[in-house]
Design a protein that fits this description.
single chain; mainly alpha; globular
Length: 311
């Protein structure tokens, strides 16, 4: 990482400086300034809220596509590198596990059925990063997921248990499931996941042919930089794939990453779309370069270098 860019990143708010020092520089920064930050405290309060937070999951008032609510607020805090213990969200984390069935699957109102692993994987991937990686309930969920792989090695919410043998897995399902599995060293190098990874890479390779998979395309919206990562887009695809050496070593991954690098201005990145729920953060505006997006690209590059060396 360029030294000037590094200094610029560390000049950001406490939560961003913490993420940079922890994840890019290998330091052990003090978490207390982050917890005292008003913007982070606001997200934590929202996660506890009865209408928008984790308690509202049981009411069906929170949908996985909605920003500023439980799914993506938790995801953002996990991205920073914060833990459930740091944030004193243990009760809220336990509330998520109340939706788990004995077979490991989750059924969450209003429309997350037991076979919709791509949706519940959003929550479980955040919890795994936030101190629950070795929790047996997460392990049970992963075992349930692995039992529903399609013949091509990926996943499709609507076609499980070998119901349809010739349908490609869904790119969003693959992305969300890999987001969780990528938190584990044994899964990062698992050849059994290469089918799911390769479909995401092939989707990029065939973008000029307008190849749409189950409603997902690789067009202008996909190639625009923004956060949070609710939609199927280039930054989250790269972020997830950077966890897997098989992907990081591929020409398709490097081509995708070069496309993103081409959007930089002096090593800094601008948000090309924003979300009003996060207007108080630098990725919620487009006028100035975003330290957070710049951090994410640098994190992708760091992971990819490490992963490619393992192949």
């Amino acid at each position: 990482m360029d030294q000037e860019v590094s200094r610029w990143l560390r000049g950001g708010p406490p939560w961003l400086k913490y993420a940079v020092e922890l994840q890019l520089l290998g330091a052990k920064p003090d978490v207390q300034p982050v917890l005292a930050d008003n913007a982070v405290a606001h997200i934590v309060r929202r996660l506890k809220d009865q209408q928008r937070g984790i308690p509202a999951l049981s009411t069906g008032q929170v949908h996985y596509t909605e920003t500023g609510k439980a799914y993506w607020d938790l995801f953002f805090l996990a991205d920073i590198g914060l833990t459930i213990a740091d944030l004193k969200l243990e009760n809220e984390a336990e509330a998520v596990f109340r939706f788990q069935a004995p077979d490991g699957t989750f059924t969450i109102p209003p429309n997350v059925k037991d076979n919709y692993c791509c949706m519940s994987a959003i929550l479980l991937s955040s919890l795994a990063r936030m101190g629950y990686r070795d929790d047996p309930r997460v392990g049970r969920y992963i075992r349930a997921i692995l039992k529903t792989q399609n013949p091509d090695g990926g996943w499709h919410c609507y076609y499980t248990d070998m119901e349809v043998l010739d349908i490609e897995s869904c790119p969003m399902d693959n992305l969300n499931v890999l987001m969780l599995l990528g938190q584990y060293a044994e899964h990062r190098a698992d050849p059994g996941l290469e089918g799911a990874i390769d479909l995401l890479l092939e989707h990029w390779d065939r973008r000029d042919r307008k190849w749409r998979l189950h409603g997902f395309g690789v067009g202008k919206r996909f190639m625009s930089l923004g956060y949070p990562a609710v939609k199927y887009g280039i930054l989250r695809v790269l972020d997830v794939l950077s966890l897997f050496p098989h992907a990081a070593a591929s020409g398709s991954f490097q081509d995708m990453l070069e496309f993103v690098r081409g959007q930089a201005s002096g090593g800094k990145y601008f948000a090309e779309f924003t979300d009003g729920a996060y207007a108080g953060f630098d990725f919620g505006q487009q006028a100035e370069p975003s330290r957070w997006l710049t951090f994410l690209v640098n994190r992708i590059e760091k992971r990819a270098r490490a992963g490619a060396e393992l192949v």
